[in-house]
Amino acid sequence: MSHLKCEMSVWGAHPVEEALNSSAVQLRELILAENAQEKYAAVISKAKGKNVRIRTIRKELLSKEIQNEKHQNIAAKISLTLWESLSDWFEIRERSDPLLAVAVDGIQDPQNVGTLMRSAHFFGAEVFLMTRDRNSPLTGVVAKASSGALFSLPIVYAVNLARELEKCEELDIWRVGLEAKAEKNLEALQLQDRHLLLVVGSEGEGLRDLTRKRSDFLAKLPGSGRRESLNAAVAGSIALYEISRHRYKI
């Protein structure tokens, strides 16, 4: 089984705390603005227990170092463990109930990637698949938008999405691409008892041709509106709700 390490900076109270509590994260350094020690005493104590280096600097220097002013006086430098392939992660999956996974195909806005991660985690997805190119890189902006879900969901950071989709066939995972011009609504598919990977494309281009060809089904959102009127994160979140509603009888 192969893993990757992603070095990044995160900021904000919730993302830093989620990173500190995640088994997939190695916290290399905790950085605090001056006069923030009392507010984050519990975080500091836990970091010391893990032998994490702690540094205190002026607030304006913290903003400059992470290139973001909305840091709530706390940031961290971390190393996040990623999976190289979905099949590697699937081999160690212990659950026997139907899998729900999410993949992104060409979503370059880090806010959308993070928001979709947050929705995936909320609606019970077990793993999040993205490729190293064509999508937004994993950054503190993604972590912030995900509200810490980046550190709660296993992340597959693959080289090639088409190859991952081919592997899904071997793993008996149904591949459903979210597509505005699809003939069937998502709610019409019988997806309750099958392993499922939901693939969400970019706002402008949608799914790539290779992704469409390697999908078992293409489905659109229910309703009369056009998919293009929604950004990728909103469309993907609605699709996840629909899948959860049918699976869990919400």
Give me some keywords for this one:
250 residues, alpha/beta, 60s Ribosomal Protein L30, Chain: A, Alpha/beta knot, 2 domains, 7-stranded parallel sheet, 4-stranded mixed sheet, 9 helices
Structure commentary:
There is one protein chain. Helices cover 33% and strands 27% of the residues. It contains 9 helices and 11 strands. Helix 5 packs parallel to helix 9 (232-248). It starts with a strand and ends with a helix. The chain folds into 2 domains: 3-82, 60s Ribosomal Protein L30, Chain: A; 84-248, Alpha/beta knot, CATH 3.40.1280. The protein is elongated, with a radius of gyration of 19 Å. The protein has helices at residues 13-21, 41-49, 59-66, 86-91, 110-122, 140-145, 161-170, 209-213, 232-248; strands at 3-11, 25-33, 53-57, 74-83, 100-105, 127-131, 155-158, 173-178, 184-185, 195-201, 217-220. The model has no long low-confidence stretch (mean pLDDT 91). Strand 5 (100-105), helix 5 and strand 6 (127-131) form a beta-alpha-beta unit. Strands 7-6-5-10-8-11-9 form a 7-stranded parallel beta sheet, sandwiched between helices. The longest helix is centred in the last third of the chain and has 17 residues, at 232-248. With 250 residues, it is an alpha/beta fold.
Produce the secondary structure layout.
Elements: E1 3-11, H1 13-21, E2 25-33, H2 41-49, E3 53-57, H3 59-66, E4 74-83, H4 86-91, E5 100-105, H5 110-122, E6 127-131, H6 140-145, E7 155-158, H7 161-170, E8 173-178, E9 184-185, E10 195-201, H8 209-213, E11 217-220, H9 232-248
Parallel strand pairs: 2-3, 5-6, 5-10, 6-7, 8-10, 8-11, 9-11
Antiparallel strand pairs: 1-4, 2-4
Helix pairs in contact: 5-9
